[in-house]
Design a protein that fits this description.
With 173 residues, the chain is an alpha+beta fold. The protein has 5 helices and 7 strands, in the order H-E-H-H-E-E-E-H-E-H-E-E. A 7-stranded mixed beta sheet has the order 1-2-3-4-5-7-6.
Length: 173
């Protein structure tokens, strides 16, 4: 896709706060990521109540193109301990049909900006190394590779590594 076509797609996308009514689309996109085998250790979606409880209230975003949710981004707490209140884990998912159009970049950039407004000073992401596009996306928005966690978990009985990335806020000291 040409850069001008990507720009038109991103311009056409509305980034909006995620609402509970977006859940069916968010869940569908999340299920696509799960099915890929390279997006998460999860093997099934858990339902709105469980997902909601596992993520920070703000920021939560959706990308909407032509009235259809095509991507989402949210933060989850890294720890419930007060010392880590400003550290969060990033989730960014884009529908397979909408990938390569700059939707993930737009979502992640907005998520970073809104996380800083919410007082988050460090964002982290744990990504399968095979998910080269996601690692590159995070690096493009200022994340750095901290290291590789070998055999950190099993997915379908197979040990998997993850690449740990982090982004320290330039706004919050």
């Amino acid at each position: 896709m040409s850069e001008s076509a990507k720009a038109r797609t991103v311009e056409a996308a509305l980034l909006a706060p995620m609402l509970p009514s977006h859940w069916p689309d968010v869940e569908r996109i999340y299920a696509e990521g799960i099915a890929s085998g390279n997006a998460t250790f999860e093997t099934a979606t858990a339902g709105w109540e469980s997902w909601d409880a596992g993520h920070l209230a703000l920021p939560r975003l959706v990308a909407v193109v032509d009235g259809q949710v095509v991507g989402w981004a949210a933060l989850g707490p890294v720890s419930r301990r007060p010392a880590y209140a400003g550290v969060a884990e990033v989730s960014v998912y884009v529908a397979a049909a909408a990938r390569g159009r700059g939707i993930g970049l737009a979502l992640l950039r907005r998520l970073v900006a809104e996380s800083e407004t919410a007082g988050i000073w460090t964002l982290q992401a744990s990504i399968f190394p095979e998910n080269v596009a996601s690692v590159a996306l995070h690096e493009r928005v200022g994340f750095r590779v901290v290291g590789r966690r070998e055999r950190i978990g099993r997915l379908h009985g197979v040990w998997r590594d993850t690449v740990l990335l982090e982004r320290r806020s330039r706004v919050i000291a």
